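Fold it.
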Amino acid sequence: MGGRVTRVFRNFNVENRARREISKEKPAPAPRHRTARLDTVADSPEIKEEVLRKDDRFLTLLKDVYVESRDPPVQVKDGGAEHLPSKQEEKRLTKLGHLEALDVKKVPKGKISLVEALTLLNNHKLQPQIWTAEKIAAEYSLELKEVNSLLEFFIPFTVLEFPKETKKAITSHKPKKLT
């Protein structure tokens, strides 16, 4: 609704306002500086002659100049190769079970996929005696230090369902009024 109102005011008497602007006297442009007109200087015959004339003294000096260019020796950093992926990187098949369609099929050794990470964390949470850090490291081709860190810092969520009596007790509770 507001757009219609503003459009009416914007278009009110627009033709008369446009004619008034067009019929105004145009201001005279500012005068140009002398040096801004280089085309008149380039037309003078003295300057053209000076540009086209060859100076023998400068030519002999130019022939004496010899430039030799060398590239600096290439230095290879020792630690630079560890960040680049190797062409012969070993891969292993993933152990996904029923979630096979959700994830990648092959991962490099020493790494795990997201679905595998969730699976091993859940297995360790449900059966910590069977799924120890050593067994997980051997099963998924991981380092023991990394598996210990994974099990220590990443914990899968737990869904807790409250009994129905507790829900009724919570909903029937009336908040106290502050005075």
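The radius of gyration is 41 Å.
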